[in-house]
Write a structure and sequence with these properties.
heterodimer, A: Arc Repressor Mutant, subunit A, two-stranded antiparallel ribbon, 5 helices, 2 strands, 9% strand, elongated, B: alpha+beta, six-stranded mixed barrel, six-stranded mixed beta barrel, 24 helices
């Protein structure tokens, strides 16, 4: 497995946000999901840059919706996880689990 | 209702920087969240701040992804980006290898852009940013005015306020405020706190929600319910340490208990800064018929939705007519409406606009200088351009390179300019006179940086446009040029000369403006205010109603204060008065001359009213004819009055007013008084003001609960303030004394706004002059270097050094003279806008114009001495050998 296949922390958060949001994942909801769950200020530009990268890697697909049926209605770009994205996420979680197997992580960390 | 929109500038910035493929989604997403924030009740300001933050934080990401598409060319995105990066690298290399061009160009632009950014950041905060209230464009101030009497923008009387509130359909809220100060006890020392008395609906009117607790209930203006206060955020921190349990606590104000209801938010701003707010309540006797003439309330109103200010004006005119018919004191008076923003900002709009124009000139001069530098570079690079064109480089390619190079130059200048602005904003706001609204909030924020960015991009574009117009891409012509490299730059040279003329003209305009202000300032400082300020200290004192309610108590206390302070070592004399000159406060009351009804011509006469202690005129150094007040002039003895020269001259032009009688109205009604003295005129309302009619009565005959103490000292004593404070504490330990300051400061504070404007304009004018002269130096040097050969030939043919020298200087002088003439014409047209700030100087003052023209001439000559000397030093043999 090459180094490029590992997911960065922010990439993981974005993918997990897509997982949570199901078919309502677009710029606003992804950004708000990450910000409200992690408490971290997230720039919309960072979200889009990350989604573009993930799309290039094949972890994410996007589709543009029909414009809203009102004057000046906008269309939205929805994102969803692909099979490969799901695999990558699983791999990342597996790795963490394997590293923590057999260790009472919380207790050990608190003891430091 | 107009819905708040995302900040347009930030949106534009986002549209300019976002990658094309996501641009629409980014803009729509941010707009959606912006409206979510508004809907969540986070407030327009917070939502706008959030939006700016998002845009600025997203820019780096956009650039990491390749940024906006720069050219329309074909080819895939990657090639475009690579070629753009290549161009940028190329431009950087070219700029770096020519530091003698790049460094002066960037520094000049930094100065020009920096000055603009600084002044813009002030104007942005003070003028452009909406007032921090809900829908501030619906807020008005309401005044009373009387055309017949020539009274405009008078405050409103309490009974008229009640009528206004009850009888209109155009305002959703009407509220009034008045200033007050309280004595706060309960801490280590008693202290004076400033307060605004406001109608209970004031905060609803402004749309301000309390940070802690609540606002006044609607019934708080009924006597008995009015012992409640709202604290300013800073006072809450100072007195309660920011403890939320302050809500419900009691404050001891003027000896009475007030309950704390709420705390204002930290961002809250109001023209009258105050520690606390209390409800404005009227007793029945304050709403009597007679009080309709007591106009002292500042009234604010909010227009109902869908009501225009014209509709409001029409309805209030009708109401005023109705009130005038019913009440004698309202007859002839009408209402005047003024948008709140105009009322607060009109005094600052013109000076700031003036400064913006001045820095605009500086930027123009900076650009002209850089264009000059760029043109020289273009001339040097002409061979390269021609060769590359011949080898097939397209016009578009060269234009693109030039655009990138100039934009980078301008952006570097802009970046450095932002640093300049960061450094200068704080000192400038500190130097600025007090009272400019929201000056403390001035900062280099996102909006200012965006402004700086836009200015820089515009400068880069302008530079490219001018250089491109000059550059010929014609290959045939170009080949000819390669052969005869030093011909054909005549049109370029003409452009450079035109730029120098423009620079000289612009700097002359600025210098004339600065010169006029300097002269006006010099004349003002020479004006005799009519009183002595040397070694005189002043401090104000006010007596709490609870302990000094009776007039006799006040009078006795003042006598004791003046006596005991007079005994201090180093004090020459001590006096007290109700209104110090140039401190901004006045009282005006009616008067009439006994036995001479014809003097008033059927109209009510008014004079500025002062109550003063016996030694007032001696302490202030005001010349007096007749007798001053005596310690024996107390209540119960013969009422006396002293008038000023202006009054004596108006009513007794040929006779001596001493011994005549005046009936003067005051707090206790009209009293007939004997004139015992006449004093010299004092410039009470400022150095530029004409003396007004003034009457002075003994403080002991008409004491007021507030006074200013005046202490004339015989020597400089830093400890005097402490000793005065200690002495007062002996008389009344619970009495707070406000800061003591030298009398000089009143005058220098009065001069401060003028001095500040003069300093800034002067600084900009000096920068402009230096830049124009550097430009002149550059052009003349260039001319000399180009003409070396010609000069050599002429010298070989017998021209002497002096003649060559004079020739070069003459050429510079011709440019300077043209600039001076054009600049003078422009200045004549523009300086009339200075008329309002000039004192006894005409905006077309010939002496100033002449002196400045001479200055510019001399400096121009100096700028060309070095190149002229170089020309005169040309060795004909060397020059001809080059051939």
């Amino acid at each position: 497995m090459s180094k490029g296949d590992y997911l960065g922390e922010f990439e993981q958060m974005v993918l997990l946000a897509l997982l949570r949001l199901k078919d309502n994942a677009y710029g606003v909801t992804v950004r708000r999901e990450i910000q409200s769950r992690t408490g971290r200020q997230v720039a919309i530009g960072a979200v889009y840059a990350c989604l573009e990268r993930l799309e290039r890697k094949g972890h994410v697909t996007s589709s543009v919706s029909e414009p809203e049926p009102v004057p000046g209605g906008r269309s939205k770009k929805y994102f969803s996880l692909t099979r490969s994205g799901a695999e990558a996420l699983k791999r990342a979680r597996d790795m963490v689990r394997r590293m923590t197997d057999g260790v009472a992580v919380d207790a050990e960390l608190d003891a430091i | 209702m107009n819905e708040p929109k995302p900040p347009a500038l930030a949106r534009l910035l986002l549209a300019l920087t976002a990658p094309e493929r996501d641009r629409q989604f980014l803009i729509h997403d941010l707009a959606e969240e912006f409206h979510i924030l508004i809907a969540e009740g986070r407030g327009k300001w917070e939502a706008r701040r959030w939006y700016w933050h998002q845009v600025l934080a997203s820019i780096p990401w956009s650039f990491k992804r390749g940024g906006p598409v720069m050219s329309r060319g074909t080819g895939d995105r990657l090639t475009q980006v690579t070629s753009l990066i290549q161009d940028i690298k190329h431009a950087t290399r070219r700029l770096r290898t020519r530091p003698r061009f790049t460094v002066p160009a960037i520094l000049t632009l930094a100065l020009g852009i920096g000055a603009n950014t600084t002044i813009f950041s002030v104007a942005n905060t003070v003028l452009l940013r909406p007032l921090p209230f809900q829908q501030p464009d619906r807020l008005l101030t309401v005044w009373e005015s009387n055309r017949e009497l020539g009274r405009s923008q008078y405050p409103v009387s309490p009974p008229t306020l009640v009528d206004l509130r009850g009888n209109n359909r155009v305002f959703s809220h009407v509220a009034a405020v008045a200033n007050k100060s309280f004595e706060l006890t309960g801490g280590l020392h008693p202290q004076q706190v400033s307060a605004v008395m406001a109608s209970p609906g004031m905060f609803t009117l402004l749309g301000i929600r309390m940070a802690e607790g609540g606002s006044f209930p609607a019934t708080a203006d009924e006597p008995g319910n009015d012992r409640v206060v709202v604290l300013s955020h800073s006072f809450w921190l100072r007195w309660f340490g920011g403890d939320p349990s302050a809500i419900g606590a009691a404050l001891d104000l003027d000896g009475m208990q007030y309950r704390v209801l709420g705390v204002l938010p930290e961002y809250f701003w109001f023209p009258q800064a105050a520690d606390l707010w209390a409800p404005l309540a009227f007793r029945p006797d304050e709403l009597s018929e007679g009080m309709r003439g007591a106009r002292y309330l500042q009234v604010y109103a909010r227009l109902r939705p869908n009501t225009s200010i014209e509709q409001a004006d029409a309805e209030l005119t009708l109401l005023a007519e109705q009130l005038g018919a019913e009440h004698a004191n309202n007859a002839g008076w009408t209402f005047e409406l003024k948008p709140l923003a105009d009322h607060l900002l009109e005094d600052y709009r013109r000076p700031l606009l003036l400064l913006l124009v001045a820095v605009g000139f500086v930027l123009c001069i900076a650009c002209a200088n850089v264009v000059n530098l760029v043109l020289v570079r273009a001339a040097e690079g002409q061979r390269e351009t021609v060769v590359r064109t011949a080898l097939g480089a397209t016009r578009g390619r060269l234009l693109r390179e030039s655009l990138i190079e100039n934009t980078m130059l301008a952006l570097a200048g802009g970046a450095l300019g932002t640093v300049v602005a960061f450094w200068t904003v704080a000192p400038i706001t500190r130097l600025a006179p007090e009272g400019i609204p929201r000056l403390g909030d001035v900062a280099v924020d996102g909006g200012v940086i965006a402004f700086c960015l836009i200015v820089s991009l515009a400068v880069g574009l302008a530079l490219t446009a001018i250089v491109t117009m000059q550059r010929s891409y014609n290959t045939t012509d170009g080949v000819l040029r390669v052969c005869g490299a030093r011909t054909g730059d005549r049109s370029m040279h003409r452009l450079r000369q035109a730029l120098i003329v423009a620079e000289v003209a612009l700097s002359l305009v600025l210098l004339v403006g600065a010169g006029l202000m300097l002269k006006s300032h010099a004349l003002l400082t020479r004006v005799d205010p009519g009183f002595n300020t040397d070694g005189v200290l002043v401090a104000s004192l006010s007596l709490p109603q609870a302990r000094y309610g009776a007039a006799a108590d006040q009078a006795n206390f003042y006598t004791r204060v003046v006596e005991s302070l007079g005994e201090l070592d180093g004090v020459e004399s001590v006096a007290a008065t109700t209104n110090l000159p140039m401190a901004g406060s006045t009282m005006r009351f009616g008067f009439s001359i006994d036995d001479r009804p014809e003097a008033s011509d059927g109209q009510q006469l008014h004079a500025e009213y002062h109550a003063a202690s016996p030694d007032y005129f001696r302490t202030m150094g005001i010349a007096l004819r007749g007798r001053s007040f005596q310690p024996s002039d107390i209540r119960g003895t013969v009422p006396v009055v002293i008038i000023n020269e202006a009054m004596a001259r108006q009513f007794w032009p040929d006779a001596d007013p001493l011994g005549e009688r005046l009936t003067v109205v005051s707090q206790s009604g009209p009293v007939s008084r004997e004139i015992v003295g006449v004093i010299a005129n004092v410039r009470h309302a400022g150095l530029a003001s004409e003396p007004r009619l003034e009457v002075y009565v003994p403080l002991a005959q008409d004491p007021w609960p507030f006074i200013d103490l005046i202490i004339a000292t015989s020597r400089d004593d830093r400890n005097l303030a402490t000793r005065v404070r200690d002495q007062l504490a002996v008389l009344d330990p619970a009495l707070p004394l406000n800061t003591m300051q030298p009398m000089d400061r009143l005058i220098s504070e009065w001069l401060a706004p003028l001095r500040f404007q003069m300093l800034l304009i002067g600084a900009f004018a000096s920068i402009a002059l230096v830049m124009a002269m550097l430009g002149m130096y550059g052009v003349i040097s260039y001319v000399v270097s180009r003409r070396t050969k010609e000069i050599g030939v002429r010298m070989a043919l017998g021209a002497d050094k002096g003649r060559v020298f004079r020739g070069v200087v003459g050429q510079a002088a011709a440019l300077a003279l043209t600039g001076i003439i054009l600049g003078s014409v422009a200045a004549l047209m523009l300086t009339s806008s200075l008329e309002a700030v000039l004192y006894e100087v005409s905006p077309t003052d010939p002496a100033t114009f002449g002196a400045i023209a001479l200055l510019v001439m001399v400096v121009s000559a100096a700028a060309c001495f070095v190149p002229a000397g170089r020309a005169a030093g040309v060795d004909p043999v060397e020059a001809l050998r080059e051939e």
